[in-house]
Amino acid sequence: MKSLFSVFKKGLQKTATKITRTVSNVFTDAEEWSDDSYEDLEDALITSDFGVNITMKVIDDIRDRYDRGLIKTTEEILQVARDDVKEILTKDSRDINYNTDGLTVILLVGVNGSGKTTTAGKLAHIYKEEGKSVMLAACDTFRAAAVDQLKLWGERTDCHVVSAKHGADPAAVAYDAVKSALAKNTDILIIDTAGRQHNKKGLMDELAKVCRSIDKVYPNAPQETLLTIDSSMGSNALAQAKEFIKTSNVSGLVLTKLDGTGKGGMAVAIQNEFNIPLFFVGLGEQLDDLQPFDAENYTNALFE
Fold it and tell me: Which of 27, 65, 190, 244 has the largest CB neighbor count within 10 A?
């Protein structure tokens, strides 16, 4: 069984290599750390999608400590970066709000292609491995492929999938799924939703309707509304996330495809931008490569 750190290390390898190579090439054996040195490190962090604000915070902290004679080695640079990033990642952290006495409903939202349906399947796998009973609901009824994909995940994880015919009312599917999950004393219900309609208002209205239907049969649910974000999209992903966060009562984040490019800094940029906890990260294609987010393992893998 893979250790959690090894999963993070493998998934963040491209980003970590870029940063450590830059630090090693620029600062090792340098008689003096110059503006050019800091600019090279700045470029490495920004192109890894840490964002300008985080990048400048880290650079300013390193420069200040160097000027005061507190650091002088490349290892100390990486340690400063590690500490600064970890502080950002832990300031809004909390545990997922599970209902320990009954059903927990998790609603997944996000644009099509962000990895919602795959995340639903991999979350089901995580919870099944923990010994919980899990049900899936295919509420992206506008895309037959999404329903079929979720059914495949249901077979793969041995989870019942509540679905309806193509074009059916997503809110009705959600209502039926919650009723069924309650009747069967299910521990976790994961609801996959649509990510695109003819306009943003139509999509957001549909998501609001889904939530109202859930509340009718099970008040105060969903316990969590998780937004899936494709980290490979960089700043475009941040713009999309803003729309959902403004209108969809998002309570937590899932960052997918973090391993696909050298953009491992997205986890930091998103946490800093929205002050919403990051609960899971996708670090590969395998079933167990969706992992609960761990700031310690993340920062150690990134700045090793």
Answer: 190
